[in-house]
Amino acid sequence: DTELHLDSIYLKGFRSFLSQIKGSLRTTKDGVAPIPRKNDKFLMQTTVDSEEYTADELIQLDLCRKYIQALTLSDICNAAGDHFDEAKIKGYPTSSSCYTTMHCFNQTRHLPEIGNCGDEPSP
Question: What angle (nearest 5°) sits at the alpha carbon of residue 121, between those of residues 118 and 123?
């Protein structure tokens, strides 16, 4: 048995329950989401690997990425994968925007330190 570090009270409760009933949870996956399209990339991994952003900028980009529900490049492209979906990038997806159920982030649009995700920066 490996001792897990769990921040969530719900996960701690679930772990205690499993322990009480001598139960276990088995998973078959390694927890890494599959890439949905050929040549797709994880946005934050690509951003970090570029070494072009400060730690604060990476945090801001990650918050906005979560707001627009984007994990991979394909999440912010059109269905054909040949153009960026500008509406989705600005935080206002249309009925033709790609949508995935692989992930769901709970992130508000307004971030006090940077304003609204998708807005043009102030001059």
Answer: 160
CB distance 70 to 62 below 8 Å: no
Q: Could you give the 3-state DSSP secondary structure of residue 110?
A: strand
- 53-67 in b/e form (b: 16+ CB < 10 A) is eeeeeeebbbbbbbb
Q: Convert the pLDDT of each residue in 44-76 to its tens digit.
A: 999 999 999 999 889 888 888 888 888 888 888
How far apart (Å, rounded) are the C-alpha atoms in residues 112 and 4? Answer: 34
The enclosing H or E element of 62 equals helix 55-67
What CA dihedral angle connects 65, 69, 72 and 73, to 10 degrees?
Answer: -80
Whether this prediction's pTM lies above 0.85 is answered by no
CA distance 72 to 60: 17
Name which of 56, 60, 59, 69 is nearest 107 in CA terms.
69
Q: Which stretches of the chain drop beneath a pLDDT of 70? A: 1-8, 27-34, 36, 99-123
